[in-house]
Amino acid sequence: MVAQIVNAFNSSNYTRANTTEVEQGYNLCFNTSSSNDAFHVPTISANFAGGSVILNQQHTFVEVEAGLMCMTIVNATGNVTIPGNVVWGNAFQTDFYIQYDLGDNLLRIQTDQNCRSSGVI
């Protein structure tokens, strides 16, 4: 997933902020101060066996410094070019109600408080 996001940004006016990535510990950061355009994140869909969750900029990027945006989805390998599992942090969970049903081995994600009525993700 992370590699696809990098590819989507390659055609943008944003340059990679490699120093910020190393210093801050993020996998993917962009310098947005050099662009006159507003920072725009492409549509990101987290696809699970039971459904999908559409993520917006609030769920995926954070401004770590003025003009520096970093992705909050972290590739478990620590390298954005190597496919692997991803870590969903607190930014991903903003505005969602998430139920971890360990008894039934299910994860439910819902935009309202009724996780029981939601589709299983």
TrEMBL record:
Pfam families: TAXi_C. It comes from the Eukaryota. GO terms for cellular component: extracellular region. GO terms for biological process: proteolysis. GO terms for molecular function: peptidase activity. Keywords: Hydrolase, Protease. InterPro entries: PEPTIDASE_A1, Peptidase_aspartic_dom_sf, Plant_Aspart_Prot_A1, TAXi_C. This is Peptidase A1 domain-containing protein. It comes from Genlisea aurea. The lineage of its organism: Eukaryota, Viridiplantae, Streptophyta, Embryophyta, Tracheophyta.
